[in-house]
Design a protein that fits this description.
With 275 residues, the protein is an alpha/beta fold. The protein is built from nine helices and twelve strands.
Length: 275
């Protein structure tokens, strides 16, 4: 039930969720980028047949720095050899369990989604580390904080284009790109996925939702060169088939990862048929 509710809310410009499981019943405070998105999400929750209808109350928050404050206690988190850390919990880089140098990525929590604390972000980071990234071109769709784009660059990518429709997210991503010393490799731009015109890349990452992945499958597919791969996440076990069906025929499932019923796929674009 919890994962279904998170997946539903994620379709409406969701910025952050604060959970208080000490209350009875459990109370969530859910923040959205706009009042319109909040109202649409409330209507969707009230009408969702698969979710026990909660009591929904709407509120306006004038203090625009709430996002930073709600994430002020987040600690560093390790995913493979990558450590995603806020400025106040930066560890000293050392060797990973496999003997490789750890990659410490500093992310300032803000309006941009992606601190490494959500399962979907961690799954993308796991699958990125399984790819040969050296000299690859990358497009990170819905970049949020820029964490996936930055990690791709730190893993050896030659060029990374990070795009998002949210200007606040791009501002945060650009700050994080500079903070991590990859400004010569990563460019972050406000861009709608439907605009087209971007040259295809070797690797495309899209940590969205199952609904958005299915809706924009043609546009996402067009960003991947023949033989390249698309790393998708942000969907639950109930949406696996929806995502796979959306890319069927053009992409083959070559790897998957799962955590707490959240899933991620590596979808490899089939080479164009000869002749």
């Amino acid at each position: 039930m919890r994962d279904r509710l998170v997946a539903l809310l994620s379709d409406y410009d969701l910025v952050a969720i604060q959970e208080n499981d000490l209350t009875a019943p459990s109370m969530w405070t859910v923040h959205f980028a706009t009042a319109a998105a909040r109202d649409q999400a409330a209507d969707a929750v009230r009408s969702a047949e698969e979710i026990v209808p909660p009591q929904v109350d709407l509120a306006e928050i004038e203090d625009e720095d709430w996002a930073r404050r709600t994430q002020a206690d987040l600690p560093a988190i390790r995913i493979g050899r990558v450590i995603v850390a806020p400025p106040w919990d930066l560890p000293a880089a050392s060797k990973s369990a496999g003997g490789e140098p750890e990659l410490v990525v500093e992310i300032e929590p803000s309006r941009g989604f992606g601190t490494g604390h959500h399962q979907s972000t961690r799954l993308c980071l796991v699958l990125l580390q399984h790819r040969p990234m050296q000299d690859q071109t990358v497009i990170d769709v819905g970049t949020g904080s820029g964490v996936l784009a930055i990690v791709a660059a730190r893993l050896g990518a030659a060029f990374v284009s990070a795009i998002d429709v949210d200007p606040d997210a791009i501002e945060n991503a650009r700050e994080n790109v500079v903070r991590n010393g990859v400004a010569s490799t990563v460019e972050a731009h406000v861009r709608d996925l439907t605009e087209g015109g971007m040259p295809p890349a070797d690797v495309v990452t899209a940590n969205l939702t199952g609904t958005l992945l299915a809706r924009y499958a043609p546009q996402l597919g067009a960003l991947v060169r023949a033989g390249g791969c698309l790393i998708v996440s942000g969907f639950t076990i109930d949406e696996k088939d929806l995502v796979l069906d959306a890319f069927d025929g053009t992409f083959a499932l070559t790897e998957s990862a799962e955590e707490d019923d959240w899933w991620a796929f590596v979808l490899t674009r089939q080479p164009h048929p000869s002749g």
